[in-house]
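Can't paste images in this forum, so I'm doing it all in text. The chain is below; anyone willing to post the predicted structure tokens underneath?
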Amino acid sequence: MKKLVLTLAATAVATFASAETKWDLPTGYGVNTFQTKNAQQFAADVNRLSGGKLTITLHPGGSLFKQPEIKRAIQAGMVPAGEFIISGLANENPIFGVDSIPFLATSYGDAKRLLDASKPVQQKVFAQQGIKMLFSVPWPGQSLYSVGPINSAADFKGTKMRAYNPATTKIAQMLGASPVTIQLPELGQALATGAAQNFLTSSASGADGKLYEQTKYFYPVNGWLPCNVTAVSMKAFNALDKDVQEAVLKAAAMAEQRGWVESEKVNTDSIAVLRQNGMNIAEPSDSVRQALASIGEKMTAEWAEKAGADGQAILSAYKR
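Text version of the structure:
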């Protein structure tokens, strides 16, 4: 009898273990960023909603895979899920870079409409690669910082403008500034030595990096609001029981809604930090707005040409 009880107990444990699935979810962002905190809450919600049938372990800060490697790791089946910035895939397919077209969507409302317009097309392309999008959350908009005041578009001419990718290099050139390639960790020192005089980055980057120590003017132009996407291998998702799939989708919907709210809060809080530390916060002048809008129109047209029919479909849906 004792042997039978032990056998039944062992069988029950084995059955329970086989019913529990464990996923790893890498992200390239640090543990203290709101994006990573949101992904961590998503993991906790999945565990709760699935009744413990699916446990997700988050690996922040590039500890499992570096940021540029995560999407390919999901696609290759090396990891079931992950988080990455979708515009980082723009060289692979232009439609992945739609949320980073300069001055196309310059508010949270516009960015949400752009996401709604682009998501079906992006989902289709991801599905062809064996990947399922779960949720998408924007960073605060890229805004203008300057050592001196920018009262008109002419004030950019002859200045050194920090650039960090082809788009920002082109923006600087179109404004008549000299682009200087500087990555964010080196920006503070570059400003202190005069290697750069103005640049575009988010309010959060300015507050976290204490960029108010070298710059005194902030203009919330919200040039673009780049999104992070959390995605899963379709093979891993399809292997889940139906009720667990529904738990994942429900937790993802909660994460997307929560993440957008938190992004706006981070933006507001970060601007407050900039103001408290002596920065002049002002809306851009009409001259600057018109110059940036003109750049946006030209770069949107160039993107649409590269993106083809899918790009035209996204822009048409967005403009409706």
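The first helix runs from residue 2 to 19. The first strand starts at residue 21 and ends at 26.
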